[in-house]
Amino acid sequence: MSEKTLPVPSTEASLATVSGLLGWIPTWIVGRRHYDAVPPAGVTLVCERQPDNPSDTEAIAVYAPGGGQTGHLPRCDAAYLAPLLDRGVVRLETRLSGPDDPDNRTPIRLEVWPAEQAADLAGRHADTAEAVWHHQLLGLWQNRARYAHTALDAFRSEVRAHFHAGGLWPETQLLYRLLKGTVADGAAAAEQVRLEQMRREAEAAERSRAAQLAECRAAIACEACGPLLPFGHLSVLPLRAVRPAAARPIASAVRQGTAAISCATESDDLCKLRVKVERGQCVFAVKGEELDTTLGRVRVLHDSVFAPGLVPDQLFYVVKANGESPNRRKPVFMADAVMPEPALPALPGEATGFAVFRGAECLEIALFTQPGSAAAALPLLRARTWHLKPASPAPSAAEAFASVRPLFTDAALKPAPPYIDFSDCPGLSGEAFILGGSLVYLRVKVKEQACGHSSLFGLGLSGKLDLLEGAGEDQTLFVEAGAVEGERPVPDIAYAGEVGRPEQRS
Q1: At what angle are helices 149-164 and 170-219 packed, to 10 degrees?
Q2: How many domains does the chain divide into?
Q3: At what angle do helices 75-86 and 170-219 cross, to 10 degrees?
Q4: What's residue 67's pLDDT?
Q5: What pLDDT, on a 0 to 100 scale, did the predictor assign at position 505?
Q6: What is the mean pLDDT of the chain?
Q7: Structural domain that includes position 471
Q8: Residue at which a domain ends, from 395, 411, 446
Q9: Same domain, 412 and 485
Q10: Which residue from 23, 112, 167, 261 has the fewest beta carbons nearer than 10 Å?
Q11: Are strands 248-249 and 283-285 parallel, antiparallel or unpaired?
């Protein structure tokens, strides 16, 4: 087709007055291994034509500021830039944009500036496909700010094969390549926005976590409310919850009709009970609490909270309390040195919990919303080794409370409303339950440190003793019972941890 003037808007005037940066192209310095000069970072490098280069007459060399050549621009870029440099349409500046890639190419930011003949970028008015492509690219380049970088990148992907095939004007190729820099700028800006959004979200999450943690610490706060009370060789420090929730003990709630219990399943020992509570009420059952019911006397197996709309589980388990608990850690003494079991300590009327100490070492903290719940939890003291004399003397009440205070103020709590988990705290285990920023219950055990001595309790049996070395509460003692002469030998019995059903040893 022959070239002729077409009725298209003129862009020469607008392009002739362009004085700022046209754009930039992400590319590389190649051939570094052939040259000694090293391109310095943070400075502008010089790009010059090398028309006499025997390998490529369109070569564009890259020089360091001191004059030493560092390499060339890639052939694919030199092919369209060389004609524009020769005609004085553009000039080039470049600087490093990163470390060398695995192909020994040095990434650069190649900046394209208008020169004296910048108006030539408008292209020729011709009735050809090349002219159509050029004016399409020119219009897109002039209006690139209207489009998201993702849309421009998608467009470049669609037409990439056509542009790489060649045959288009150098001005057109330049505009296509400049779009790559525009896409990179857009992607960098979007990434910056994303990172800033992530930073703000992280800060908001941290503020929310800190506020939640502060609320949890305030909810579980307590204070000492009496002197240390003895229980055998253990000591009990009465505590009072600062922010108790309005939770009713299950026994009084059932008596007053604000809660109703029905039996879901029943066996000889275990019963599963279903609790129905009116909305807006909160009812609490204490682990170890004994209830005198029409099923008989039963003992609660776990701390259980019932609050419609907040706690989905409305079931709890009890065992029939016919005599002593079979899992009770029953002390065994030498026959001539029996210690009578002490009476449970009488907590002050305002106490809603307690901390258990052996000497200066805290073993457990239990804190509730009602004084009655604290009293109901006290019988579990009998499961402790109350007859083991501590290595250190008992502290004063003030010293005892000072030793447990960090648990409430500094421990690494893990809020999971309405629960607070203490499993992430080194040396601690347990949980708390908060409702409306107030405490329903807290029960935390402190893992005992290895004490270096063995808890030996004579069993009143003759024969050999095999001790499995360990520390703390859960050491295991094996005994081989001696047989009375003339009687059949008694089989070996193993008692492991809490004394329960004896197991036959092989």
Answers
A1: 150
A2: 3
A3: 120
A4: 84
A5: 36
A6: 83
A7: 454-506
A8: 446
A9: no
A10: 167
A11: parallel
